[in-house]
Amino acid sequence: MSSVSGTTDDVPWDDIGFVISSRYRVSVLDRLADGPATPTQIASDSESAVSHVSRALQELRDRSLVELLVPEQRRKGRVYGITDDAESLWRIIEAQQMA
Length: 99
Fold this sequence. Notes:
By secondary structure, the protein is mainly alpha-helical. The chain has a two-stranded antiparallel sheet. The protein has 6 helices and 2 strands.
């Protein structure tokens, strides 16, 4: 029997650790929790370089925490949104004051 309480067994600690280990990933999820946005909007809102935001978006997308909301072939006006999994993850990060 595990000594960890049932409530923490279901917490995706690996994903949480991945997100909070980068201020750019944190700022991207924080912004997208408010609604869909383009990389330029996220960069402006978080006072980060677009290149850092783009890298963070790709890393989060690779983990299925962020999704592209427009066709893949679109190069301008790429709008991203947070996935349901990431929304749950973000609530935990905020509740635990990890961001």
